[in-house]
Design a protein that fits this description.
Length: about 280
Amino acid sequence: MPLIRTKKDLDQRLKNISNSLTLGLVPTMGALHKGHIELIKRAVSENGRVVVSIFVNPTQFNNKEDLKKYPRDLSKDLEIIKAVDSEIMVFAPSVEEIYQKNVQTKKYNFAGLDKVMEGEFRDDHFNGVGTIVEQLFNLVKPDNAYFGEKDFQQLRIIKKLVEIQKIPVNIVPCPIVREEHGLAMSSRNERLSEKMRLKAGFIYKTLQTAKEKFGTKSALKVKEWVVNQFIKEEDFKMEYFEIADIETLSPLKRKEKNKKYRAFIAVYAEDVRLIDNIAFN
Ligand SMILES: Nc1ncnc2c1ncn2[C@@H]1O[C@H](COP(=O)(O)OP(=O)(O)OP(=O)(O)O)[C@@H](O)[C@H]1O
Ligand SMILES: CC(C)(CO)[C@@H](O)C(=O)[O-]
Ligand code: BAL
């Protein structure tokens, strides 16, 4: 299976692909799990050739400790990808290869989508995501690119990025894959103790009950209820819970017919930051 380390090598290999084949891209930060595997399988089933990128992008980390502790295991990742399809091209560049000596973040106007939730609590995070994803799109020039709904706000930002930068790529959203007890799969779950990994199913169960309550109660009441659930649970520290319009991501004030809503949450467990979301209608 081709492991590509440089932009030059990537470019040469892409030139050898027949124009009649569509190209799929799955951007990741590695430490692959079943959530990533679903994205990769879907890309393989829908494209003639697939590139999986593995790059822990420093410009999207607002917290140095989080970047340092981010799980990395390239040889295991390569085994996982090979088991899906040995023709997949893996692009795993170094930080220098991507940023040279200039680890800098581009500034975008994401029309406010980056000002709430993840954007509010992770300063400049989405400019960092935009900077790397735009570069990956320019290098790979994929027909289709695959992103998980676990990072639903990121998905909205990527769609906005493609619109404002006029990048000709089809963005394919993929549903959230969960562990047996409901916790959304995430590379950072590796940093949780076994006990906490089971207990953290509580986050999704709370979202499910909140969804039921949303049928009869106001957004404010539902939010109050969720906040109280987490106050009672000492093992978790909730950072935010919002019910938001899926298009604008602005927090819901009054329910409107014909609009779609999702609930979004970020919670700390054992110092690990976990996010999740659920469709409310
Ligand atoms: N449980 C999941 N279900 C569906 N897609 C997922 C899931 N986890 C990650 N993805 C998607 O995989 C892609 C790569 O994500 P990334 O490598 O950051 O992994 P991650 O598990 O989200 O890690 P972390 O949240 O700890 O950074 C993103 O598009 C992300 O949304
Ligand atoms: C899209 C991405 C690969 C950009 O670094 C990252 O944010 C991720 O893995 O979700
Ligand atoms: N999957 C989200 C990337 C991040 O947390 O930086």
